Amino acid sequence: MPSPVEVPISDADREAALERWETSIVALEEKNESVRSNEESILFIGSSSIRLWDSIAQDMAPYRCIERGYGGAKFSDLAVFAKRVIEPHQYRGLVVFVANDVAGRTGDHSLEQIEAWVRYIIGVSQAHQPNAAIGLVEVTPTESRFAAWDKIRAVNALLKEIALTTPDTYLIPTAEHYLTADDQPRPELFVADKLHMNEHGYELWGSLIRRRLDDIFRLRAEQASMKP
């Protein structure tokens, strides 16, 4: 895993990320002033599906959540901002959802690039909170990007492989629940843009993430009880 000191991104891409997202990151930092530190919190970081999750407190109860999503985040710029987004917080678990590196467009990132950035972000969290669990949420199948679903599925397979090979890191599988029996996106779970979830989509998302966190923390407690 790369050292958290070494962000695996070019200077040009770093400058582009700062130019586009600095204002959004500053706004997140300003929100930190009103957050009371709680080591039992779950920190959610990533793209607009996190940012737009207005019902997160209700959908994730009884977990106490800190929401730090922004715009159309990619793993590339999240790597640039990882320390600023992660290090102000104490948390029991970190949940990461990013869905924009592969969208069927020119300039999509490669799996090799995504892996380097994801592993770097995990490294930042583990350096800051060594005992926290890290959950990587699968990219959701959406009608607006379904032409690229095979490539997006490869990203999900990569996230699974990273989770399987990285201590204290877990996949949060969700994608299959957003597909019909014919393997098509379920339109009733999305708003008009056919990309972002509606209240029913978020309710489902929350139940899946919450149940997976329950399983993760139960497993970790069992493993801890078995140590001499």
Structural class: alpha/beta
The residue-averaged pLDDT reads 95
> What separation lies between the terminal Cα atoms?
28 Å
Number of strands: 5
Secondary-structure blueprint of this entry?
Layout: H1 11-31, E1 42-46, H2 48-51, H3 56-60, E2 65-69, H4 75-86, E3 93-97, H5 111-128, E4 133-137, H6 149-165, E5 169-172, H7 199-226
Parallel strand pairs: 1-2, 1-3, 3-4, 4-5
What does this structure look like?
The chain has helices at about 10-30, 50, 55-60, 75-85, 110-130, 150-165, 200-225, and strands at about 40-45, 65-70, 95, 135, 170. The protein is built from seven helices and five strands. The protein is globular. With about 230 residues, it is an alpha/beta fold. The longest helix is centred in the last third of the chain and has 28 residues, at about 200-225. Helix 1 crosses helix 4 (about 75-85), helix 4 (about 75-85) packs parallel to helix 5 and helix 5 runs parallel beside helix 6. A five-stranded parallel sheet has the order 2-1-3-4-5, with helices on both faces.
Quick description:
The chain is α/β, with parallel strands linked by helices and 228 residues long.
What descriptors fit this protein?
7 helices, alpha/beta, 5-stranded parallel β-sheet, 5 strands
